[in-house]
Structures are given as C-alpha cells and as structure tokens.
C-alpha cells in the first residue's frame, strides 16, 4: 500500500482532517472549492501544460474527495463515480467473455439485477453461492476462469457474515489472477476495512453512510494495488462515469461526519435490537450475542453497524407493523441520519424473482430497520406502538 495514504491519526480524526496539499487553492479556501467546469485552459499549443484538461478525465474537486477517501479506506487509490451501481459496473468491465464470477446469494437487489444482465449479455458465468460458507466459494474456484469473487458482509437483508479474510486467502492461492471484491456499503470504512484483509477492491454506495443525508448519489471504489487502480481509472475515463464536481463536494462534506453519525446510529441500533429480541422476535443483527456469527463479525469489524432485520412469521402482520410506524419512514436505502423501515421482498429486493427469493430462503415477512440518530426512546416507543397496533403482544416495560 502506498505510504501516501498511511493514516497518521485515529480514523475519527482523519475523517475531518482534509489535507490542504490535496487541492492547491490560490485563496486558501477552508472548504474545498467546487470546480464547476468541464474544461481547463492549457498553456501550450500542443494542449499540454495544465494538471487538468477535461472533467471526465479529472477535476480538482473530485480529486480532493478521492484522495481523502483513499486515506479513510487505506487504499492505494480511490475513485468516486456516479452511483454505487456504477461502481460495480466499472468493476465488472474487468471481466471478459468466458470468465466467471462467484457472488453471494443474499446480495443487494440492484447487484443481483446487474449480475443477471451481465450473465445474459456478456457471456460471463455468475455462480451465486452462500458466501458465508468458505467451502461453497472454494468449490466454485477455477484457476483459469474465475475472475471476480464478489462478497458482501454483512449480507443484506439477512445480515449474514462472510469470512472475508479466509476467502481472500484461498482465492489468491487457487486463482492468482482473480480479484476479491467487497461491497462494504453496510459497514462503511469507519467500521470495516477489507483491503487490509486481502480484498483487491472495496466499493461502496456513497449514497448511504459516506454521505449520510440521502441528498446525493455516489459510488466509491478503493483499490489495494496500483495496477488494478490504473485499469479502474481507464474504465472510468473511457466510460465517463466519474462523479460530478458538486456531488463530489457534497460527498466530501458528508464524509467528515461519518464517525459521529455511525457511532450514534450503531448505539441506537444495539438498543433497538435488544428491544426486538426481548419481544421474542427473530432478529438478525451481528451485535447480538445470540447471533451465531457474533465472534466472526467482531474479528472483521469494529462494530455491528446500524442495519438489522427481523421476522414476524406473517407477511400481513409485517405489513401492518411497517405501516403503523410514524417515526420510521417507509423507504428503501439506509445510511441516512433518519430511521427507515422496509420490507425487502416488496421493496429493495423485489427485483429478485419470487422463486429465487424462496430458493435463497429470503423470508417474505422480513422487516429491515435502518437506524438513524434520533433519540432511542422515541425510536423504540414508535416501534412498540406499531407492534402493539399490529397485534403483537408486548413484553416488558416501556418508557413512555
Ligand atoms: C445502495 C446499495 C448499492 C447501490 O448503490 P446506489 O448508490 O444506489 O447505486 C449497492 N450495494 C449496497 C449494499 C447498497 O446498499
């Protein structure tokens, strides 16, 4: 990893400390300026002389957020693109016809949709396996054909953990030319740094925790090696998928508060998970000691995050609970400062055909909670109210 991106301070400090060397601004602006320009004037007739020439290829505001995020991710180099799905699309361009991808079976809905498209149009075989069992990945490894191994941990919405470290190790031993790619959106770089566990590429939907306010869309790609980074840059420049100056600026502003947001959202999530478990509901959250993968998750990350899901045993009951909540907004997505509630099978994961959902044991009654920064008593009170109205008998005492 490049020394340039070594962290000098604790992550919470690095998040707010913007290296003023990253952008040379004539006026010493305290906030990185928005270079809202498509082109840059050159000094010489042969078109040379300027650091930037055309914003598809590079823009100072984008460079500022990229170098900041590279440091946060401990990446050799990081890139920002228009959405999280664009990040995956850029990465998928490293796969040629005839090569194979091994991916999870509890993936983000949009990831599933793009992988299906690629398998239908590009002659690339995609194996969906349960990546929470290392052996399932191993049995699909082909030293010649495997190009990408795509992981999410925790998975979404079932919140299962993949042993990223062990998988990366096995993949690199058996398939030296394969790339281990992790969608780390759910944890954010604040809680989990997968490049340190041997992932070659870590990507994020910057729409979620990195920005934190649901006011922009972005994707982030961090690379462990310079050679992979160069290929990624080539695709971004060739396809024109780099993030625009204004969204780059918004993303940089959002990243500064990632630490404080994540700490609060996570501590709220722990309280919410405890409450739901106390109601006798089946809760999926790696912060619960009852979770079979509690220790594995702890070995990979510094916290359980702020997304959890639970089962009620009845689709209609789940619908009543979701509709009965007031503070919890019914919305797809997560990572925002306000709390959200959803039914993945009807919303974020509805693009996965019902038979496939069944095969992957995705419970239709599953409710996903994305916990925000509100007061935890209000969040729990609102959930208790929604549960009670829907017909769940409440246990224990609740503070009003
Ligand atoms: C939201 C999300 C994406 C896609 O990101 P967009 O910015 O919406 O394109 C990919 N993976 C995960 C885990 C996500 O939550």
From TrEMBL:
GO terms for biological process: 'de novo' L-methionine biosynthetic process; transsulfuration. Pathway: Amino-acid biosynthesis; L-methionine biosynthesis via de novo pathway; L-homocysteine from L-cystathionine: step 1/1. It catalyses: L,L-cystathionine + H2O = L-homocysteine + pyruvate + NH4(+); an S-substituted L-cysteine + H2O = a thiol + pyruvate + NH4(+). Keywords: Amino-acid biosynthesis, Lyase, Methionine biosynthesis, Pyridoxal phosphate. Its cofactor is pyridoxal 5'-phosphate. GO terms for molecular function: cysteine-S-conjugate beta-lyase activity; pyridoxal phosphate binding. The modification N6-(pyridoxal phosphate)lysine is found at residue 208. The keyword Amino-acid biosynthesis applies. SUPFAM superfamilies: PLP-dependent transferases (SSF53383). Coiled coil: none annotated. One of its GO terms (cellular component) is cytoplasm. Gene3D superfamilies: Aspartate Aminotransferase, domain 1, Type I PLP-dependent aspartate aminotransferase-like (Major domain). Its EC number is 4.4.1.13. NCBIfam families: cysta_beta_ly_E (TIGR01329). Belongs to the trans-sulfuration enzymes family. This is Cystathionine beta-lyase.
